[in-house]
Design the sequence.
């Protein structure tokens, strides 16, 4: 962690929040590993208060868990995959149906431009970090264009773990190509203003994600890791 530093202009707890979250996503903090707030406070020469606040937020997001008075990194389970994706299928199939009906032509064009940008990133080997972020933006645009703040809040409550599973979901041969193909199919029905088929394709897309994640989590620990700093 020697390459990390704190900036005075941003509240320390926010910096620790983003720092720890990034290290979890990148695998620098492993599932089940203990987060030692005393050690972090000593290393960065700050009080425990901002670290505790960062931990509180990450615990609320599900990325950290308190076990027997210890704070440890979340460990994914098959039940979590099924539970979270059950929620996603319900929320995002409804979201894509709403957006297909309500989005302006300009908003649909924004989604289409994003898909083209994603395809270009895949073709030029921009690497997992970029492509995962672009895939996230596809889903975020669909949810954002529903104009339904209640639905948006429910999805936002799962955001931390959804992104965690997106990283795991990227593991495997030609995953980027498979995912963008599914996104294209969903969007093609959106462009035709066919909300029923767009919703059905969103459910299929998320069900395929579940199948892949179950396969990833059923393999030895090393196979579920992914280096976000490397190309595909």
Sequence:
């Amino acid at each position: 962690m020697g390459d990390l530093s704190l900036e005075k202009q941003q509240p320390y707890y926010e910096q620790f929040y983003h720092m720890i979250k990034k290290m979890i996503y990148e695998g620098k903090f492993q599932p089940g590993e203990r987060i030692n707030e005393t050690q972090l406070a000593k290393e960065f020469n700050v009080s425990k208060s901002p670290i505790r606040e960062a931990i509180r937020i990450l615990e609320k997001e599900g990325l950290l868990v308190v076990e027997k008075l210890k704070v440890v990194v979340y460990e994914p389970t098959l039940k979590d995959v099924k539970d979270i994706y059950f929620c996603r299928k319900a929320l995002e199939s409804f979201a894509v149906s709403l957006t297909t009906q309500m989005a302006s032509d300009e908003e649909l064009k924004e989604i289409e431009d994003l898909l083209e940008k994603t395809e270009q990133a895949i073709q030029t080997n921009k690497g997992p970090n970029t492509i995962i972020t672009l895939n996230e933006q596809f889903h975020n645009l669909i949810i954002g264009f529903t104009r339904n703040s209640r639905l948006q809040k429910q999805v936002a409550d799962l955001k931390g773990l959804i992104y965690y599973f997106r990283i795991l979901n990227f593991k495997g041969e030609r995953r980027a190509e498979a995912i963008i193909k599914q996104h294209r199919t969903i969007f093609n029905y959106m462009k035709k203003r066919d909300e029923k088929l767009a919703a059905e394709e969103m459910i299929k897309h998320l069900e395929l994600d579940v199948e892949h994640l179950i396969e990833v989590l059923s393999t030895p620990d090393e196979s579920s890791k992914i280096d976000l700093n490397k190309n595909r």
Notes: Residues 222-226 have pLDDT under 50 and may be disordered. Strands lie at 64-67, 70-73.
